[in-house]
Amino acid sequence: MSLSQITLSLSRAAEEQHEQVINPWWVGLMAIGILLGMLFALVAFGGGREHS
Question: Within 13 Å, how many C-alpha atoms sit on residue 51's CB side?
């Protein structure tokens, strides 16, 4: 096997693995949902306290 054939086969193998498993939009939406849930929990638990 020549060097050019090895290089070509390695570049083809690298191109095939380029597909992403998880869509970045779903990761962002889940992160926003978690952060908003934590914000609402903070407001709900801290809303009854008086300021000193």
Answer: 0
What is residue 35's three-state secondary structure? helix
Q: How do residues 3-40 score in pLDDT, each as one tens digit?
A: 778 787 777 776 665 566 788 889 999 999 999 999 99
Helix (H) or strand (E) holding 28: helix 24-46
- Tokens standing for residue 5: 């054939």
Please identify which residue in the block is written with the tokens 């390695």: 10
> CA 32 to CA 27: how far, in whole Å?
9
Q: Rounded distance, CA 24 to CA 18, Å?
A: 14
